[in-house]
Structure formats: structure tokens, C-alpha cells
Amino acid sequence: MSIDETLIAEYLSFAEELAEAAAAVIRPHFRAPLAVEDKGGNLFDPVTVADRDAERIMRTMIQKRYPDHGVFGEEEGRSGGRSPLTWVLDPIDGTRAFITGMPLWGTLIALNDGSRPVLGVMNQPFTGERFIGTPTSARLGTRPLRTRPCERLDEARLMCTTPEMFQTPAQRSAFDDLAARVRLRRFGGDCYAYCMLAAGHVDIVVEAALQPYDVQALIPIIEGAGGIITTWEGGDAQHGGAILACGDPALHPVCMEVLRGAA
């Protein structure tokens, strides 16, 4: 479905309304006593009332404003609509950081037109930062974002939320091989690492086992800033899985050469 610039502006304005509403729900719970549940799985997968209530308020707003649109959220899954447009929501990306008082988390909001995410918002209400991406640009607040030039692996700064996310020995080995060749490695970050790539502070983000709601909002931010984000095999990143993001497109094939075949 083709969306013109006028509609992009309308939907982006609404996405910012969603971000504000979610922030109002989430903010009182940050660095406050909070019950935490484990959703299960190979890794500790926490969820809190802040996650659930923030997604619920966004879903309610979407249903009221655009009842034909679909919604796909981390906490409540998919709800269909007649329109090909789908809002993809992660109310708190980085819940582990959230429950440990670290500000490396954010609310992710994407609008998918049925073929790709056409706008993305990463809102961090504690720091007051809002990263926004569209097909033509990316910005932090009103400041345009650009990735930094970095063609050489041995000059690159690499981030990954945790090496525990690599699900097979092949994935972990490929990551370790790539990480050994860069200038700087840092762990933690979740969605924040991708935004720092768009802002020109990080050159590579390598992760695995991502869900669509973990990554769709970040795709327009990275691409709008001049970067590239794909699967390890060079495929479409919007469905999640093993993901590679590079600020300098020239660095991307260099990283893929190390990672390809391990996903």
C-alpha cells in the first residue's frame, strides 16, 4: 500500500500521541518497586504491569482513531483489521534494563504498510529523547540524524544486547569472530544501541532471536539516517531473527562475510 507524505505526517503525529500516552503509563514505574513476572523461555523474559498497561492504552487509542488498522504487539499479539496497515508495538523494549533501573530501554512504535515499516518511533521518556524515522529522513527531536562513515572493521564500534541471545554454537562463533576484529565492543542497549548507530556513535549492531516488534520501528530510523539493516544473510529485517545493522553501507558486506551461513 502506497502512503503519500501527507498521510505519513498524519500517522507520525498519531505515533507521537501513542508515545506520549505510553510514557505517562510507564514513567511512574521506572526505578520504583515493581512486581516482575517471567514469561519463560531459554532466557529470563521479564514483563511488568508497565509493559502491559502501556500496550493496552496504545491499542485502545489505535482502535478508536483507526479501527480498520491492525495491531501487532509484544504483550497481546495480533489483532486484525481490514486495512493492510498494521501498528507494531513494543511498549518497553529492554525490560531487563527497565527493572534494573538502567535507562537503556524505549517504547517502539512502527507502522507497517503491508510490505514494510514506513515510519518508526523510539521514545525514551526518562531521558526525554524521541528518535523518529520515515522513508526519507531520521531525527532525534528536531535534530537530523546521520550515521558516521566507517568502512574498516578494525575501526568500528560494535554493540549487542547480550551474547546469550545467540541460539546456536555457529551463531556465537560467528559473532565472536566478528567482535574480535572491531575496535570497541559494548553489551547492553536493546533498542537504544540501534538509535546510537543512527546518531553516529555506533557502527555495527549484531543480534539474533529478535521478534518483528523488536526491530520494525528501528528500520526507518536506521535507513532514514543513512544506515542499512538486514538479516545476517542480507534479507529483510522486518520479520526479526538474526539481525545486522551497519551505519556505513560499505561496512555491511564486510560484516556479512563473517556472519553469513551461521544464522
Automatic annotation (TrEMBL):
Keywords attached to this Swiss-Prot or TrEMBL record, sorted alphabetically, are: Amino-acid biosynthesis, Histidine biosynthesis, Hydrolase, Magnesium, Metal-binding
Query: Which CDD domains does the protein's record reference?
Result: Bacterial_IMPase_like_1
Q: Which reaction does it catalyse?
A: L-histidinol phosphate + H2O = L-histidinol + phosphate
Where does the signal peptide begin and end? none
Enzyme Commission number(s) of this protein: 3.1.3.15
Q: Which cofactor does it need?
A: Mg(2+)
Question: Which Gene Ontology MF annotations are present?
Answer: histidinol-phosphatase activity
Q: Which Pfam families match?
A: Inositol_P
For this entry, the protein name equals: Histidinol-phosphatase
Q: Give the source species.
A: Thauera sedimentorum
Higher taxonomy: Bacteria, Pseudomonadati, Pseudomonadota, Betaproteobacteria, Rhodocyclales
